[in-house]
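Cross-check.
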Amino acid sequence: MPDWLIATGLIGAVLFGLLSAFFPPLNAEIYAPAAPVIFPDAWVLHVCAMTAGLVVGKMSHFVIADKGAEAYSRRREAKEAREAAEPRHPSGPIRGRLTRWSKAMIDVLDRPRLGPLVMLGSSAVGFPPLAVVTVAAGIKRVNMVLFFVVTTVGCLGRFIVTAWLVARGMSLGQ
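Predicted model, tokenized:
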């Protein structure tokens, strides 16, 4: 494969990751298993490049949330006041339980030991959703370097493992 094609693919991988942070239909979880199929000799580089783009995009969300924390808290208080006045509709036991778990996990983001575990779980497994954890971490003023490192490790681990399983499956099938 020509070097210029690999370079172009790497730029495309970074852009895909970056765009996936802003546009959910471009899902990073789609790119990871496709990379070994499209770039069988350089899939690790492509997954790393895509992850870098995704984390940069998430960091922009983090910074925006960090800067807008005060405005967010004012809106949240107004929303909670409105919700308290409205009657609640049952949402089902599973959805209610997931909502409570997500809220409990997000509430501990600023704790020194539990916060990084929630960020790692979110980026490595996807629960609670990374988009929600990113904004919540920015609002709770979590250390930016800690967020960057933990999110990168979690996302990279998830995407490398997913792509490796596809690559392994392809090599066993031959």
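The longest helix spans residues 144-173. The radius of gyration is 19 Å. Passed to J.P. for a second look.
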